[in-house]
Amino acid sequence: MGRLGKVDPSSYSQPELITTLHSALRWQVDFKNTKLVGSVTHKFNVLEKNLAAIILDVRDIKITNAELICDKSHIPLNHFISESIDDIGAKLTLELPQGTAPGNLLVRIDYETSSAASGLQWLTPEQTLGKTHPYMFSQCQAIHARSILPCQDTPAVKFTYEATVEHPSDLTALMGALIDKRGPGCTTFKQEVPIPAYLLAIAIGKLVSKPLGPQSNVWAEQGIIDECAEEFSQTSEMLKTASDICGPYVWKQYDLLVMPPSFPFGGMENPCLTFVTPTLLAGDKSLADVVAHEIAHSWTGNLVTNKNFEHFWLNEGFTVFVETKIVGRMHGDKERDFHMLRNLTDLQECIRTQLAKQPELTKLVVDLSNCGPDDAFSTVPYIKGSTFLRYIEDLLGGPEIFEPFLRQYLQKYAYKSVITDDFKQALYEYFNGTDKKGKLTEIDWDMWLSCEGMPPIIPKFDETLANVSKQLAQLWGTKTTSELRDLPDVKQRISSHQLIDFLGKLIECKGIKDLNEQKIELLETAYNLKNTKNAEVRFRLMRLYIMARLLDRLDEIIAFANSNFRMKFCRPIYRDLGNWPDARPKAIENFKRVKDQMMAVCSHTIEKDLGLK
């Protein structure tokens, strides 16, 4: 594939020559043919004399017209689309008139999306909770905005936008923006804070809302709205805590939309409207930390953005770091440290399984010259990145020293896109004039950024809460089932987080003694696992079923894999099933049957995991 552009290896667009300032969208939502039909008018800033052409990213988009809008006339633009690269898309070239001068340029493109647009998911009424109305939603990160509109699909470019969306009048349309006007069958939106293309978001369905606080609502289908409002009742407190840490919240509204189960991520930080998976509905708020993570993105990622996805840790590592601070302020430092230790369990598992054959992707800064961002996606930038920041914070003297710098860094680069060197420079500029200057020399940047594997240094965490799950995993890993029956430790009460961590650590145990049906049944009885609503617990239990080769539980495992298409859950389940010869044929048969109900990013990665692509 090679690098597609100078600034961003995954985008053809040339932000060094031209940049998008504002986009005006007009969409008709066609549920019958599962496509968007309409236009986008881009306001560009041309940075170079005699620019011959505008290059935009597209994927499966049909262009019907392109024109330059001048004061008194519209000039048709000659345009053509290159051959498409699998999972990346194609290059749209718009030829400009000779002698185009630097400055602003308005270009209107009429187009329609494909019914198979990778960034859109269309659900039939039967696939929704209410069973009576269709539903559509988008997921543009990392490089799927190009399947929804011709654009500079790179986080190096940020633009404001407005949108007019025509949709069935009995459905509600929402976007990652503020609602401007709502009429029957037509809604207009405005996003006045510049965003990268991957933060463009739309959802349309039979939706209702309940307030969560002065600037927050939760949206969902009617059948789960009360449950959602209860589960996410701490949203306003999290938002205030995040503002205390990071500075003023600039996006005005912070709403949540609880998605259908086919949504592929835990959450997506679309501005003004975070999308979250329904697998967070545990009944005890134990999985609501994902909302803290998405709130943190309002600063780290949405306001200060990685310039390309090779530096994705600047989005996700910083966001996990702030998320753990929110957890710490709300629930205490022991919980903050336990959160980070649990993450390290997950990272270890990811490196051992998902990235076993691609160790180069365990680096903090990766090379995407010949790899799409979806293929590189893992927990590494999240967990290795946040561990690096915690190491730096501890080295420089703790939160009271580091947090003022964090606020200044976020202020300095607000509304901009950055690479790792920008962060490094800001850190040195801030601390060079202080008594911490000597400490900076201890940071081995090359080791942290370019070495493969687990974080090179694990900070000193409070392990009080983690020790409980560690000891339980050791017990269940080394004792026989009959020995375990009489142990008092097995009957001790533990939190949901400790249970999740214990099961995760048990999965990581090498050679669990007596891993059979009897042991699994004892585990289920001891911790009431059969009745749990907690998807994180159920996910780990399914993986233990697979490790124990319980063929008679295969239907239950596949039912879990079909109950949601969150990649965090279904990718490891399919990977595990693919490595179990007796289960592999049934897993592949099931995947082929349901893959059209998955978003492209999910089905594409599972196909690769199973060796089908």
UniProtKB/TrEMBL annotation:
According to the entry, every stretch annotated as the Peptidase M1 leukotriene A4 hydrolase/aminopeptidase C-terminal domain falls at: 464-610
Keyword Cytoplasm set for record: yes
- Spell out the Pfam families in the cross-references: Leuk-A4-hydro_C (PF09127), Peptidase_M1 (PF01433), Peptidase_M1_N (PF17900)
> What pathway, per the record?
Lipid metabolism; leukotriene B4 biosynthesis
| Gene Ontology cellular-component terms listed | cytosol; plasma membrane; side of membrane
What are the catalytic residues?
Answer: 294, 382
This enzyme catalyses:
leukotriene A4 + H2O = leukotriene B4
Q: Which UniProt keywords apply?
A: Aminopeptidase, Cytoplasm, Glycoprotein, GPI-anchor, Hydrolase, Leukotriene biosynthesis, Lipoprotein, Membrane, Metal-binding, Metalloprotease, Protease, Zinc
Cofactor(s) recorded for this entry are:
Zn(2+)
Q: How is the cofactor bound?
A: Binds 1 zinc ion per subunit.
Q: Under what name is this protein listed? A: Leukotriene A(4) hydrolase
